[in-house]
Amino acid sequence: VQRSLVLVKPDGVRRGLSGEILRRIEAKGYTLVAVELREATQEILAAHYAEHEGKPFYAPLVEFMLSGPVLAVVIEGQRCIEGFRSLAGATDPTTAAPGTVRGDLGRDWGLAVQQNLVHGSDSEESAAREIGIWFPELTR
Ligand code: GTP
Ligand code: MG
């Protein structure tokens, strides 16, 4: 059975959408394995976003992710990696389909980085890597 690392990003926590996002995850049928409100750190984000280092949105992305607490979540269920990406919707909240977290609850705020409410692991390999970064105690 798969696990995925989900983050409610600082915009989602600030807007009071943590509960709504957890509700959608649970309503879909996935299990919550770990849920923790915490501040990210430069160190955690450098590891988490290593694939984006050097891209134009990298520095604003890290700054945004440090702008307030995030809700770090591990979910579990058959095909939950793909399933949560489907719940989250496309990266750009303006064009994300209605019915998705980003499509229903997100918009463009005219800022340097797309504030798109959530992160979800995009493969089994990144899920294992990201769970190791955020919840090393869960690494099996
Ligand atoms: P995550 O689940 O957060 O990883 O989103 P994603 O997989 O849909 O996007 P990706 O991993 O490609 O990018 C990580 C994050 O960087 C996105 O969620 C956005 O917040 C931001 N981002 C990605 N691409 C762009 C872009 O082209 N412009 C801007 N401004 N921000 C971007
Ligand atoms: Mg990604």
TrEMBL record:
<dbReference type="GO" id="GO:0005737">
    <property type="term" value="C:cytoplasm"/>
</dbReference>
<feature type="binding site">
    <location>
        <position position="102"/>
    </location>
    <ligand>
        <name>ATP</name>
    </ligand>
</feature>
<dbReference type="GO" id="GO:0006183">
    <property type="term" value="P:GTP biosynthetic process"/>
</dbReference>
<keyword id="KW-0597">Phosphoprotein</keyword>
<feature type="active site" description="Pros-phosphohistidine intermediate">
    <location>
        <position position="119"/>
    </location>
</feature>
<dbReference type="InterPro" id="IPR001564">
    <property type="entry name" value="Nucleoside_diP_kinase"/>
</dbReference>
<comment type="similarity">
    <text>Belongs to the NDK family.</text>
</comment>
<keyword id="KW-0546">Nucleotide metabolism</keyword>
<feature type="binding site">
    <location>
        <position position="9"/>
    </location>
    <ligand>
        <name>ATP</name>
    </ligand>
</feature>
<protein>
    <recommendedName>
        <fullName>Nucleoside diphosphate kinase</fullName>
        <ecNumber>2.7.4.6</ecNumber>
    </recommendedName>
</protein>
<keyword id="KW-0479">Metal-binding</keyword>
<feature type="binding site">
    <location>
        <position position="91"/>
    </location>
    <ligand>
        <name>ATP</name>
    </ligand>
</feature>
<feature type="binding site">
    <location>
        <position position="116"/>
    </location>
    <ligand>
        <name>ATP</name>
    </ligand>
</feature>
<keyword id="KW-0963">Cytoplasm</keyword>
<comment type="function">
    <text>Major role in the synthesis of nucleoside triphosphates other than ATP. The ATP gamma phosphate is transferred to the NDP beta phosphate via a ping-pong mechanism, using a phosphorylated active-site intermediate.</text>
</comment>
<keyword id="KW-0067">ATP-binding</keyword>
<feature type="binding site">
    <location>
        <position position="57"/>
    </location>
    <ligand>
        <name>ATP</name>
    </ligand>
</feature>
<dbReference type="GO" id="GO:0046872">
    <property type="term" value="F:metal ion binding"/>
</dbReference>
<keyword id="KW-0418">Kinase</keyword>
<keyword id="KW-0808">Transferase</keyword>
<dbReference type="Pfam" id="PF00334">
    <property type="entry name" value="NDK"/>
</dbReference>
<dbReference type="InterPro" id="IPR034907">
    <property type="entry name" value="NDK-like_dom"/>
</dbReference>
<feature type="domain" description="Nucleoside diphosphate kinase-like">
    <location>
        <begin position="1"/>
        <end position="140"/>
    </location>
</feature>
<keyword id="KW-0547">Nucleotide-binding</keyword>
<dbReference type="GO" id="GO:0004550">
    <property type="term" value="F:nucleoside diphosphate kinase activity"/>
</dbReference>
<dbReference type="GO" id="GO:0006241">
    <property type="term" value="P:CTP biosynthetic process"/>
</dbReference>
<comment type="subunit">
    <text>Homotetramer.</text>
</comment>
<dbReference type="InterPro" id="IPR023005">
    <property type="entry name" value="Nucleoside_diP_kinase_AS"/>
</dbReference>
<keyword id="KW-0460">Magnesium</keyword>
<dbReference type="GO" id="GO:0005524">
    <property type="term" value="F:ATP binding"/>
</dbReference>
<dbReference type="GO" id="GO:0006228">
    <property type="term" value="P:UTP biosynthetic process"/>
</dbReference>
<feature type="binding site">
    <location>
        <position position="85"/>
    </location>
    <ligand>
        <name>ATP</name>
    </ligand>
</feature>
<dbReference type="InterPro" id="IPR036850">
    <property type="entry name" value="NDK-like_dom_sf"/>
</dbReference>
